[in-house]
Design brief:
single chain; 594 residues; alpha/beta; 6-stranded mixed β-sheet; 4-stranded antiparallel β-sheet; elongated; binds adenosine-5'-triphosphate; transmembrane helix; nucleotide-binding; ABC1_TM_dom; transmembrane
Length: 594
Amino acid sequence: MIKRAWNKWRSGYMGRLVGESFYAQGKLYGIAVLAMIAVAVTTAGSAYMMEYIVDAMTSPELRGYAHVIALGVVILFLVKAIASYIQSVFLARAGNRIVAQQQDRVYRKLLRHGVSFFSTNESSDLLMRTTHGAQAARSLIDVLVTGFVRDALTLVGLVGVMVYQQPVLSVMFFVVGPIALLGVRYLLKSVRSIMQAEFASLAEIIRVLQETSAGIKVIKVFSLEDRMINRMDTAIRRVEDRANDISRLQSVASPLMEFLAGLAVAGVLVVSTMGIAGSEQPSAGQLMSFITALLMAYEPAKRLSRMRVQIETCMVGVAMLFDLLDQDETMLESPKAHDLIDGPGQIELRNVTFGYHGAMPVIEEMNVTFEAGKTTALVGQSGGGKSTLFGLIMRFYDPDQGSVEIDGQDLREVNFASLRRKISYVGQDTFLFSTSIMDNLRCSSPDATDEEVIDAAKAAHAHDFIMDLPEGYNTQVGENGTFLSGGQKQRIAIARAILRKAEILLLDEATSALDAESESLVKKALDTLTKDVTVVVIAHRLSTVLEADKIIVVQDGSIVEQGNLDELMKKNGSFRNLFNQQFKKHAPSAEVAE
Ligand SMILES: Nc1ncnc2c1ncn2[C@@H]1O[C@H](COP(=O)(O)OP(=O)(O)OP(=O)(O)O)[C@@H](O)[C@H]1O
């Protein structure tokens, strides 16, 4: 039965955390534990010494030894001070390592997850789990180590001194202790649910802050300030209330213990002056030693009585952290995954059906080939599934049925690194890191020389505006490029994609923020730079794709038409309709395109 309980504890969150932490930081904790033992022994020793200190002052026979006793006191307190220092430093060091290690682990785990993980898990929740969870892990170990080693041993030592000095009076301690513990047990019940509510409200505070920062223009333009303030107020008040609840629970333990300690001291005074039947009258030093031990026992006893509340508090954060660490990775590399074998870069979707999170298919039984070295354009109504096709080609998602292949190799059988090396991409939402323009460009090709970076920027028509910025390529772009215009950000994203020199280039509305002139210049540059590259372009502005080798019309997850411009115009179908809508004024008939 003991073995079963042990196994259950070991596999529980607390057991795992303790096991992992001691395994990783055993040396630091070992030193801290030795120092704690020294603290406990010297604390008990200092209570015991009170007998000799007081007797040296009150009894003439011991007065001659006063200097020896004084030296003993100095040594004792010196050892205690050194041990306390070592204990604090090593405990903090081990704790800081645990926080760092847990955060590192969580972040690595997050990056191994597929894209879908990030659409189902809010960033505020991930932030809470990573920061508070790791801190809670550290606090839990601190509480356990200081509680079970320093406080428990100190208490045992002091109770030992009390029993040694005054066995009969010590009985009082054993009456008072359990009463206090019973009181604390009563408090524990609600701690966990209060903490869970507090964490949820903290996540809401982070969420409101993130949305305020990202959506400040929407908030201003639609005058949503009051609404945001209300949301924030509600979350803040919830956290405040929960924090008050927790501190109330934690605070009840102290006055309870304080009152009981006062009762005990008063009792000692009354009983000792009355004299105890059948026992020798104790010396003033013995009584003082006993009272000192009793009073000193108050602190560790108080901490021990609070320990359960603290453990419960920390366990909520630890559980959140482990929940995150234990989640199955959403996009796995096959154990037999091999490097994508070099080929011309032909992309093929074979009978692909796909729905996000297993829901209604957004791509249905699609068969399509994107010819190597050619430019294919995807057009069609919004929400038809064009960007989803890019997600499948980059293996952000796996199809529910069918396969996606590059040069005849199923993407599920190749490793991520070689697949991603093959592809360059510009998305609808241009994302820039909060660093310099140079770093943002070079991140797609870390080994590129300055010259290559500048050439790519020139091709994307970004060089001139970059040179006009105060610090040129070293200009910081701010959070997600806030210091740049939409078109400037897009040109940097295009330059970044060009610099990668991949064999497949996916452009999802990549030039939508550019004016007509810049767009045509960028297009020309792309045409020359992507001569043997397989390019797939998604564009709503048909003018961007008229020269593509092939145009595919996607509607409701299926391909409704495909061919070159002439063929599609002759068909008089969906593409012709789209074309007429966009070029009505200028090109109302098929002849214009012909
Ligand atoms: N991460 C996601 N989770 C769930 N559904 C999604 C997700 N992304 C897209 N969808 C849904 O999939 C469908 C296809 O979206 P997709 O972005 O592929 O269309 P699109 O043709 O690229 O549209 P647009 O031209 O507007 O960019 C839409 O109905 C959309 O609501």
